[in-house]
Amino acid sequence: MSMTALSRKLMLSLGLAAFAFVPLAYGQETTTPTEPPVAADAPTTDNLSMGTQEAAAEGGVGTNYVSATFESWEQRCVKTEDGSDPCQLYQLLKDGSGNAVAEISMFPLADAGEAAAGATVIVPLETLLTANLTIAIDTNKPKLYPFTFCAAIGCVARVGFTAEEIDQFKKGNKATLTIVPAVAPDQKVNLDVSLKGFTAGFEAVALTLQKPAE
């Protein structure tokens, strides 16, 4: 299956819910009926609230925002009450036709044992979960990662990287993320993860996770 076909299938499955329901019974005539006469005691709009537009909270607690861009990566943060906004390094992954297929968010980990960094990868719902997720950094040997769960936004894999692998990200040109479509289990979809700007972005995110000195 081509990348475009997979993307179109994903967009179709997500877009079906957007169609409005048409309240026409099967076989119902579509001609406009004659309006019935209005009764003398018909209700008026005097006591009906027509509603007011709720003002959108801008910059409030819980708001997501892009604080910086590092070539192929974005530093995305969440607004908190105390100002210690946690951030992640984010990249949207597209196919050769420019269709969004997956996304990856990476973040450093302090005192997390073997894992020096973590990542959240979201792929289309129609991904073959038993084939797992494959990530390779340049020409290094690829690794397999299981999917954790699926939700309306897609299927999620929570990945850990060693300090050595983070060094490979910093020195590398690209990583390759590979998934297998459930409708075509004999095929693979390879997505490029550009590493341009990764080092600067990763270090910037690491600074936001440091606790201020007491």
Give the CA-CA distance, first to last residue: 55 Å
**Largest sheet, strands/sense/barrel:** 7 strands, antiparallel
Contiguous uncertain segments of 5+ residues: 1-36
Q: Which CATH top level class of the domain at 62-209 fits? A: Mainly Beta
- Overall geometry comes to globular
Query: Which structural category fits the helices and strands?
Result: alpha+beta
Helical segment count: 3
Question: How much helix, percentage-wise, in residues?
Answer: 10-25%
C-alpha Rg (nearest Å): 24 Å
Topology:
Layout: H1 3-15, E1 64-70, E2 73-78, E3 87-94, E4 100-108, E5 117-123, E6 133-137, E7 143-145, E8 149-151, E9 154-161, H2 163-171, E10 174-179, E11 189-194, H3 198-209
Antiparallel strand pairs: 1-2, 2-3, 3-4, 4-5, 5-9, 6-7, 6-10, 8-9, 10-11
Quick rundown:
This protein has 214 residues and is α+β, with helices and mostly antiparallel strands. It has a domain at 62-209: Invasion associated locus B (IalB) protein (Immunoglobulin-like, Sandwich). 16% of the residues lie in helices and 32% in strands.
What do these coordinates show?
The protein has 214 residues and is an alpha+beta fold. It has a domain at 62-209: Sandwich (Immunoglobulin-like). 16% of the residues lie in helices and 32% in strands. It contains 3 helices and 11 strands, in the order αβββββββββαββα. The chain has helices at 3-15, 163-171, 198-209; strands at residues 64-70, 73-78, 87-94, 100-108, 117-123, 133-137, 143-145, 149-151, 154-161, 174-179, 189-194. It has a 7-stranded antiparallel sheet with strand order 1-2-3-4-5-9-8. The longest helix has 13 residues, at 3-15. The protein is globular and about 70 Å long. Mean pLDDT is 79; it is low at 1-36.
